[in-house]
Amino acid sequence: METITTRDLTLGYGEETIIDQLNIEIPKGEITVFVGGNGCGKSTLLRSMARLLKPKDGSVILNGEDIVKKPTKEVAKELAILPQSPVSPEGLTVHDLVKQGRHPYKTMFKKWSMDDEQAVNEALRSTNMFDLKDRAVDSLSGGQRQRAWIAMTLAQKTDTILLDEPTTYLDMTHQIEILDLLFELNEKNNSTIVMVLHDLNLACRYAHHIVAIKDKQVYAQGRPEEIVSCNMVHDVFQMKCDVTYDPMFGTPMCIPHGRGRCLIKSAVSDEPCNAAMTQVN
């Protein structure tokens, strides 16, 4: 059941430490979401898990081995990463973009094969992009572009996929479309999916496992229904809220306090919120 674990992982840039001696284990075959305030280190942690950032101290263990000691192509056969807001060369077609996912399998002596083409076509069909394969990536809508990039990661044929804010800049419809796609991939392929999300309610709806990060450490981790409370939201995001149940999914749902056109006095009061979730009828 091995996947990705961190051991006393410390990360940073220059003299600044972003993550300090962090220990987590990513559940295999599940969707894990990192949440936390801006600048808390979510994306930095994800980059280190993909071996894009070398630890200052500690280690990232991928399937039982220190990731920095594994050859690049071997890592790319075990996990794929989709960075935030990726950019493709102008005029590149969807098909050519997805083909890049096969790069880890290429050698000087191995030409493009039927297996490669089959992997690309499967990825295009899984993301409903096959009919758009000849379109230029930069001519697509935001949701279509994101599906094209996800298709590229699928073409790598890895058991683990890392995604940094895959719904950024997408409208509500396309956010749900992308998250539904990832949920379906997890259910169909038993893929281990790790992603950074800013929307806590969507994280609760789609994640099996949530890791909340604060002050360079894990504040809490576990099933959404086990760890998401208004106290957690207040401590991690410095925001007062009520936490109830999503009436459609039964998952925790955060209702932020604030001004706006509020009709309920308690939502703008300074009184502490109720820490327990309340059932919606």
Structure explained in plain terms:
By secondary structure, this protein is an alpha/beta fold. The chain folds into two domains: 4-90 and 158-228, Rossmann fold; 230-281, no CATH class. Helix content is 30%, strand content 24%. The chain has helices at residues 42-49, 72-78, 94-99, 114-126, 142-155, 172-189, 200-206, 224-227, 230-237, and strands at 4-13, 16-22, 31-36, 57-62, 65-66, 79-82, 160-164, 192-196, 209-214, 217-222, 241-245, 252-256. Helix 4 (114-126) packs antiparallel against helix 5 (142-155).
Considering the chains and any ligands shown, give keywords for the structure.
281 residues; alpha/beta; Rossmann fold; 4-stranded antiparallel β-sheet; 30% helix
Précis, in short:
This protein is an alpha/beta fold and 281 residues long.
Helix and strand arrangement:
Layout: E1 4-13, E2 16-22, E3 31-36, H1 42-49, E4 57-62, E5 65-66, H2 72-78, E6 79-82, H3 94-99, H4 114-126, H5 142-155, E7 160-164, H6 172-189, E8 192-196, H7 200-206, E9 209-214, E10 217-222, H8 224-227, H9 230-237, E11 241-245, E12 252-256
Parallel strand pairs: 3-8, 3-9, 6-7, 7-8
Antiparallel strand pairs: 1-2, 1-4, 4-5, 9-10, 11-12
Helix pairs in contact: 4-5, 5-6
